[in-house]
Amino acid sequence: MKSLQSNKGFSYKNWLYKGLIFLITVTIIVYFLPKEGKFNYQFDINTPWKYGLLQASFDFPIYKNELQVQAEEDSLMATYQPYYNLNKETEKNAVDKFREDYYKNLKQHIGREYFRYIERTLKELYAQGIVSGNELGQLKEDSVHHILLIEQNTATSIPVGQLYTTKAAYEYLLNSDTAQYSKLILQQCNLNNYITPNITYDEEKSESALQDLLSNISWANGYVLNGQKIIDRGEIVDENTYNILLSLKKEWEKRGDTIEEKRLTILGQIIFVSLFIICFMTYLELFRDRFYEQRGNIILLFLLIIFFPVLSSIIVEQNLTSIYVVPYAMIPIIIRIFLDSRTAFMAHVAIILICSITLQYPYEFILLQLLTGMAAIFSLRELSQRSQLFRTAFIVFACYALLYFAFELILEDDLTKLNTRMYIYFGINGVMLLFAYPLLFALEKIFGFTSNVTLVELSNINNSLLREMSEIAPGTFQHSLQMANLAAEAANRIGAKSQLVRTGALYHDIGKMVNPAFFTENQSGVNPHKSLSYEQSAQVIISHVTEGLKLAEKHNLPKVIKDFINTHHGHGLTKYFYISYQNEHPNEEVDTEMFRYPGVDPFTKEQAILMMADSVEAASRSLPEYTEESIGSLVDKIIDTQVADGFFKECPITFKDIAMVKALFKEKLKTMYHTRITYPELKK
To answer: What are residue 229's DSSP bridge partners?
Structure first.
């Protein structure tokens, strides 16, 4: 019998292989996990809240809506006065230039009175302030009514209406007193040469003043504290609650904006996912280390571990549908059917906990999925009929519905507030679970697994190969049927896979179809071994294993069935011919390899059961009489010899299992070979 843990030496290649699996799994999952804070709720004003209780998980302000903020901003902007600098030099330079031009050129064309008018008016215009046309247009567009004019470090508020543009100043010069001064004469003076803006915008002081002013705006009108209730299922989203929800959404988005926040988020996700992957891989290392050598098993497990968290991340990130539509119970169903219950449960727990990181409120999700996963494992131990999957889908739906209903009864005080939408999601989930049936077929072909459905199909005696065996080797066929029943009963008794051992028993001797007459169960008075030497006879008998493997390959039988063909005699001897040869050649050293089967010893419980059943059923036919003592002695002798010969050293079967199998074989053989009643003859 095989120990629970093999003593394997340290292997860098082995650890590199496992490390690569770990790295690829964590990298893919973390890559798809949401990286930014996201408010994954849909809501609108004056509509019912369709989710569960929502509480604040951190303190945040209640932001005012855009209209309120805009109204306050407009109110403050009405008092805003930008800063402008008054340049006295501009006025002096313009007046001096005019005087210079007058005495050089203009004196010949205009009189003294025009000189005094232009000089006086220029001083008035510059005193009022001249700005560029663009700046004045911007002031009016911004609804600025006053500006602060800086002169000698003193700011004076003046109305925008008194300012002139260069164009307006020019027109004022021409038209302010047309009764005394002719426009034609004034136009000859090129007055534009003396009109230049003397007021310029002070950007630095104006922006500073604007920021100070806007800082007085209150962007929030209250605070929500950590743990405070925001809204519960069925409550109407009024205007105040709507603003709180918008504020919470804004805070979630702000928290994921900074590079530092994103780095910390990714680091946390890596640690979180790594811990659960390490736990699952530790479980495999301690209890299922053989899976690492069976590539199909390990690929299936880690594909499921990657697929469901990635799918959950995409659904949550894109807000495609409810997460409860995803049939997570499919995980333990697939693993339970192809592998075992314990691995199914461990993988399901790891996947669900990893998926929960995509949700903001994962506790309800975790409880629901764990319960339904256990229900799926217990309700579908072996899938051999489609109806079993329908039953499991209904049980999963019922578990979802009952547990969620219990949550609602605890949290709600009004049955009218029950969330019927969730029960629709559970129904869709149950329907999606039915797609596990075609998926199992696809996985079976891709990864080389063998499901119970396939085993049931193979065990149909109308199968072409079995029907051919019943015609060519009828005795072997009857022997296989007897063995199938005997081995299946033994498997049920010790908790092994009965359907697997039943199907294996039907095919274990198909190699005898090549030379059926050389096997006693197919002989009818003629024994061809009489014309052969012991070595030749042994080779014919041994060949039924190799021929059986060839037929299995030809008919595309699954590997698990080939393993039964290869292990039902193990690496044992054809003892009849070996002992007979040894008796005839007592002084000769016998080459045991001529009499040894080419197979391997059993390495599963089912193969061990088949080996025991094969030997016991065949030997029982040679008993001279069928009594309780003779049958019991035969069973004990054969199986004890197999144990002593070490056939079960690499097999995970216990002495307790073997004792139970022996007891069952004795019961069944006594029933099969019981003494029949002799019917009396009618006296004439």
So the answer is: 55
Rounded to whole angstroms, the Cα distance separating 495 from 652 reads 12
Q: Is a pLDDT exceeding 90 seen at residue 320? A: no
Q: Tell me the average pLDDT of the chain.
A: 85
Is 0.85 surpassed by the pTM of this model? no
Other Cβ atoms closer than 10 A to 239? 10
- Annotate 566-614 with three-state secondary structure: HHCCCCCECHHHHHHHHHHCCCCCCCHHHHECCCCCCCCHHHHHHHHHH
Question: How far apart, in whole angstroms, are the C-alpha atoms of residue 489 and residue 494?
Answer: 9
Give the tokens for residue 344. 């199914």
Distances (CA, A) of 406 to 37, 326, 379, 389, 415: 31, 21, 22, 26, 12
pLDDT of res. 194: 86
Find, among 127, 136, 125, the residue nearest to 88 by Cα: 127
440 vs 34: CA distance, rounded Å: 30
Q: Which of 269, 259, 273 is nearest to 305 (CA)?
A: 273
Q: What whole-number distance in Å separates Cα of residue 298 and Cα of residue 338?
A: 12
Closest CA to 248 of 264, 226, 232: 226
Structure tokens at 120: 């006086």
Tens digit of pLDDT for each residue in 504-517?
A: 999 999 999 988 88
CB 469 within 8 A of CB 479: no
How many helices and strands (H and E) does the chain possess?
Answer: 27, 10
Look up residue 81 and give its two tokens: 């006065």
DSSP lists the bridge partners of residue 131 as 165
pLDDT digits (tens, 9 = 90+) for 216-230: 776 777 888 888 888
| pLDDT tops 80 at residue 565 | yes
Query: What percent of the chain lies above the pLDDT cut of 90?
Result: 30
Q: Give the residue ranges of DSSP H helices in 203-340.
A: 203-214, 239-255, 259-287, 295-318, 330-338
